[in-house]
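Service request form, structural biology core

Requester: graduate student, group of Dr. S.
Request type: structure prediction, single chain
Budget code: on file
Notes: please return the result as structure tokens.

Sequence provided:
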Amino acid sequence: MNRTQLKLFFATAITTLFLFVTVGSQATSLHPVRGNNGIVASSSRIASEVGIDILRQGGNAVDAAIATAFAMAVTWPTAGNIGGGGFLVYHGADGEATTFDFREKAPLASTKTMYLDDEGNVRNNSNHDGILAVGVPGTVAGMALAHQRLGSMAWADLLQPAIELARDGIPISWHLHDAFKRLTSHWDLYPSSAKVFRKADGSFYQPGDTWQQPDLARTLERIQADGKDGFYQGETARLIADFMAANEGIITLEDLDRYEAREREPIRGTYRGYDIVSMPPPSSGGVVLVQMLNILEGFDLGEIGHNSALYLHLLTESMRRAYADRANYLGDPDFNEDMPLDKLTSKDHAARQRESIVFHSASESDPARFAQIYESEETTHFSVVDKDGNMVSLTYTLENGYGSKIVVEGAGFLLNNEMGDFNARPGVTNERGAIGTEPNQIRPEQRMLSSMTPTIVAKDGVPVFATGTPGGKTIINTTMQTILNVIDHDMNIARAISAPRIHHQWLPDSTRMEAARISADTIRLYEQRGHTVRPSGQIGAAMGVYRDLETGILSGAADPRAEDGGAVAY
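Core staff response, request fulfilled:
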């Protein structure tokens, strides 16, 4: 029995207990897992085990991240992927920091008005639903570029665990069972999707069943053998292009062949003596995160008190201002060279915005300004630290849960529906959530704006902790609150991640709040300042790792909001 099969055996054995007990090195909501040699925290415990096994073999944090990402394409199909895209932030113990952008692109045949009818309205939600919503995938190119730059193990060895999981099968969890059944109407639209997510006789997989994905295994084998070319050229590319042509899609062999991931300079900021290293555009996350932290740095948040009414008010007002700037300025840097990033992340800009905050009264979100386009919350994030203290923070997605719900015939993987993150109605912005500002309109080969915010916090050039989360527009605010919890409130990484959260995004002018975990008196005092509360059961599912700079001891946690998640250490 190989290592991957052995881990699968144990994963199967604990499937029925997973929601009820703490096993092995799994963190609880209050106490992190600890180790000396490495930690991987992800939404899939099986994938976290794969990453840890790579670290045990001598791989570094980037090696473990690549193996985890490919494993999640097998174990976490709601967002783990090879048919989507995302971002990776790296910070080495030696001080080197960089980012990798593998966000999806608009196909060459795209146009600014491709989803609109004769009256200028979006046809049948076509920018989110159906084959035209698919952007050119970037994940495989991103993993290949990160490996080329920073990997230490053989590429083939990093793919092997995912191949074995796809070929031999994984146990169906309750989460997978419920999702597969809930989405049955989508599987009905494409025989290629039904083939993957239902049994051969058409029945549903049950918890504890073994789920095998042979077509995906063969696709992963081609990537294993040929690297990036095993996806963007050859058999897999032909399968994608033929499937597109047969179903009135517009992604071609040329689109695939032209795709390139980008290494980009991080967005950098400081907060109370710590360095913030995050993702630059086309992610909006780093810019908005640094902007909000700059605003909040002028308040004594520790003295004000965690999640007090005033504290929540100040967080909301910083969110309101930064998200308005997000809509106005940010997009793909390859198409928007004049974005004022230095201004938006400057302490001076934050000081001016801070001065406009009134302690006891909410500001007004003017609907005549900039609303926020819809962005799905079904993303996933994982964080990695190795024995040397190198860290990776990686967020990637298919957009909606299970993306487009469309599986490529013969290739076994889901396609994204990321085209919905573009501004589909140029020039149309209103209080109902439409946004038509120029930077994020559709152009061939443009990358759509994102809120994904993989982030690493460092001290004197040495990485201290890495965090990130799924959650659409809520991602940036969840990441910020995790950082505040660690720095301002001295929480360990598990407490920082599990603490209740809020979210405001300029428009609509209301605050999502995990209200069941915040006192009624606090909510009442918050509302008296003029805020509108919209109760939410859950905001985000953060994953984090932490390194104590004095002792070298590592700790990590998977958000208890992530049903199948796990932080694993050794």
